[in-house]
Amino acid sequence: MTKHYKNLKLVVEDSLLESIYQSSCVHYPKEYGGFLIGKYSNDFKTLYIEQSITAEIFKSSRVEFTRESNYLKSEFEKLFINKGLYYVGEWHTHPDGEAWYSSTDLSAMISIAREKNVKIDNPILLILSITSDSLKDFNFFILNNERLELYE
């Protein structure tokens, strides 16, 4: 699957989206999420999201998901050293809701971009709308000038 935002192309395998959805099902009807891992092309015009890491330390409810990431520092370092992959963003579900971001989601993404240890100006956000038995919809967003903008 390929999506576009201005002059930046986003490439994600359907199998990765399916894997993310499947990992979310066991947490339904609560929100669940994780990290998007990938790399940019040499010209920085294409972002390849190649894998996901699910959160292991988190708090969730039907309308909120908060994850911890500090415990993954060594795993992120290994991915970069061994595969040239790095953290590019976040994903989480909206059970029985829309695949659209909330003001809380926007604030979280702004905080991530401002975090000195993250070193990413334009993190990606994937929101999946799930029901008890299906992936209803999903959207990718990119943080640009403290706004989340839709990949189409």
Automatic annotation (TrEMBL):
It comes from the Bacteria. One of its GO terms (biological process) is proteolysis. Keywords: Hydrolase, Metal-binding, Metalloprotease, Protease, Zinc. Pfam families: Prok-JAB (PF14464). This is JAB domain-containing protein. Signal peptide: none annotated. It comes from Psychrobacter piscatorii. GO terms for molecular function: metal ion binding; metallopeptidase activity. InterPro entries: JAB_dom_prok. Residues 15-128 form the JAB domain.
